[in-house]
Amino acid sequence: MSPNRTTDTPHEPDDPDIAEAMRARREELGLSVREVAARAGVSEQTWRNYEAGRTQVRGDKQIGVWEALAWEPPTAWDGLADLAAMLQGGGPMSEDLGDLEDYLGSMEEEAAQAAADLPIPDWDDIPTVLSEVYSPRLARMLGEDAARCFALGTFLFDMSVAEDLEGLAELPRGTHLGQLDETHIGTTLPQLWLTRYDYEFVFQLRGTARDLSLRLVGAVPAANEPLVRNVADALVLHDIFNLGGVIADSRGADIDEARWEGWVDALSGRDQPAHALIAMGLVPPADAPEHFDNWFQPLPSPFIPDWDGVGSGSGTTTASGPADGTVTPLRRSH
């Protein structure tokens, strides 16, 4: 726990006195509006709106705002830890479960509940609420579902990384993800190098995810420009679509593994290294791109996506190929 972190009184975004509490906490920490806004990753005007009670902290900003105030995250984010355990296939095997089928059924129910508890926007609201990581280019290229899945996965990935960084920062230098009580990323990356996943590495991964988002959302890639330029890009892109796909599907969207894997292939190539790396049991040669020491080095022959590929971006779809360019209406379950 951070030295200034307070756990005396929990604070929630919808508390009646949250605006007053935010202002009092900022003053207690001796921070100006400019300083606290910079820490939280919002504009000064947005922060002034928070303290004036004109604006409630939206879901994708809550972790940054609460961290800037050295508060424990809102209780709604507790669902992330439960979800991470489900995605990892974790959780204790209860003696009350009579057989494997009952156990798996229980896991699915817990995963669905954890996903439902996360304060994420409705599927149709993602382009607006998560506009900073929603890519119209991706929507035109692979379809609206792909763009929303990427935005949702990026949001969850960044939040998961933020929690890992906080946990690592509170432990001695050299601590790795395997030593944390809960970590999603530490279990999705190849276990071969688990002891190498320290604070600096995780910090680099966060930068990788944000760079991918910036290049898909704000930039206009050249015709011969790759999206996945190194193995780290491939791993992060794969996990972003994995997270987004799992949560979207649990909320009623028809996005199974085949669909989001198809989008990953369309952006990084069918032979992209993430697939093999995640299940890797042997140590690759020291000069191979797949070796941990080379994950941030340029790939010798990066895959070039079809940036000019354009989907219709509307209507109902039953297709599941990588060029699926239509929207699957979300079946509301909550």
How can the largest sheet be summarized? none
Helix content: 40-55%
**Element-by-element helix/strand order:** HHHHHHHHHHHHHH
Decide which structural class fits the backbone: mainly alpha
Any idea what the shape is? Answer: globular
> Which regions are unreliable across 5 or more consecutive residues at pLDDT < 50?
88-101, 103-108, 311-334
Annotation, overall tally of beta strands? 0
**Could you tell me the mean pLDDT?**
78
Give the strand content. Answer: under 5%
DSSP helical segment count: 14
3D structure, described in words:
The protein has helices at residues 18-29, 33-40, 44-52, 62-68, 78-87, 100-117, 126-129, 136-142, 144-169, 185-188, 199-217, 231-250, 257-268, 274-278. The chain has 334 residues and is mainly alpha-helical. It has three domains: 18-73, 434 Repressor (Amino-terminal Domain), CATH 1.10.260.40; 76-117, no CATH class; 123-294, no CATH class. Helix 2 (33-40) packs across helix 4, helix 5 (78-87) packs antiparallel against helix 6 and helix 9 (144-169) runs antiparallel to helix 11. The longest helix is centred in the middle third of the chain and has 26 residues, at 144-169. It starts with 17 loop residues before the first helix and ends in a 56-residue tail after the last helix.
Give me the secondary-structure topology.
Blueprint: H1 18-29, H2 33-40, H3 44-52, H4 62-68, H5 78-87, H6 100-117, H7 126-129, H8 136-142, H9 144-169, H10 185-188, H11 199-217, H12 231-250, H13 257-268, H14 274-278
Helix pairs in contact: 2-3, 2-4, 5-6, 8-9, 9-11, 9-12, 11-12, 12-13
